Amino acid sequence: MLSGVNRPTDRTTTEYAPRPRPRSRPRIHRAWIVAAVTFVTIVGGAAFNSLPGLFVEPLHDEFGWTYGEIGLAVSIDMALYGLTAPFAAALMDRFGIRRVVVVALGAVAAGALASYWMTAAWQLMLYWGLLVGLGTGSMAMAFSATVTHRWFAARRGLVTGILTAAGASGQLVFLPLCAWIVDEHGWRPATLTVALAALVVVPFVWLLMRDHPADVGLAPYGGTYVEKPAPARGAARRTVRVLFDAARTGPFWLLAGSFAICGASTNGLMRTHFIPSAHEHGMQITAAASLLAVIGVFDIIGTIFSGWLTDRFDARRLLAVYYALRGVSLLFLPMLMAPTVRPSMVFFIVFYGLDWVATVPPTLALCRQQYGEDSAIVFGWVLASHQVGAALVAFLGGVVRDVTGSYDLVWYASGALCATAALMALVIRGKQAATL
């Protein structure tokens, strides 16, 4: 009886219970969340790159170190930044993006904290050069290239531009802040600020970053689902093998050579020597730092727009235009230096800022066209050349300043080099004609 009475109730419950709805696709693809975390990570890691130009004069005044000694420490940082990048890309294939980036942020924080107590030039080279160089190199453009390659099948040029702009965003955030700290409290509190910025990013990376779309059961944005590949063993061996394979092709040397000039005319030149050069013409350090920060604003605009252009136009011609315009602007810079910020200097800052790292999206696109699955590692080696060029100018620019008492020769030489880079970009040939 009881069972008979209960049957209608069971049937009614079953009949009128709401049916589960199929799970709707998320409005925001997880790839964009990963890209956002990557952006924030690069901003945090790039904070230290805002400091060299601010520290040249304070370290010279406090310790009596020459411009060449300080430039050498910066050059070690920049060289290791570049040389670490291709190995970092391979390590991410082996151990995962998340683990490598967390360790890298720890290295940046350690170097920044240790520099607080430094008293000798060799310590500057160890903390700034070695620790920070290795840390920031592991979060260099090869990091963004790996994320873009794994998580995006569409909009790669745009995403590359956005992630490249992250470095400029870090400059925009930290340059004015650190300039004020150095001016009001000295250089040591500024190093603590940078260390804190690197540590704050760690939880975001650990909680939100994922190594591959398959980790969360998704296809790359704009693509089809692919299984996560097995961890690649022999990371260092693979990195070197990819270098030797790429070195047998003509486009690699043209990309590496032009990108070396890119680094020489941006990071090595402006980031290291613009502030002391402007200061020796009577401009306040905070004013010069603010101009660099403004470059960061237009750098973001220019890089994202360059990514959009790269999806639509020949990357070689874009590179040639970018390098040519940069060279012309640098030739005029010595004539624009003055104690106050004049409209002509503002025009230069805007013009140069739009071009600062607009070269990255087309360079990365050419690496993808030429080297396919190995493109992230190849781009890491191309980036290494970028940083070697930056390191040479960071060091030699300081030496030229010690010998001649002026930076003018450095500006003119860099402008001429940019013309060479424009020609190199134009003669890059298609993949079918690349092998030497």
From TrEMBL:
Region (Disordered): 1-23
InterPro entries in UniProt: MFS, MFS_dom, MFS_trans_sf, Proton-linked_MCT
Membrane topology: Multi-pass membrane protein
CDD domains: MFS_YcxA_like
Main location: membrane
Compartments (UniProt record): Cell membrane
Pfam families: MFS_1 (PF07690)
Residues in Major facilitator superfamily (MFS) profile domain copies: 33-433
Protein name (Swiss-Prot/TrEMBL): MFS transporter
Organism from which the protein derives: Streptomyces atroolivaceus
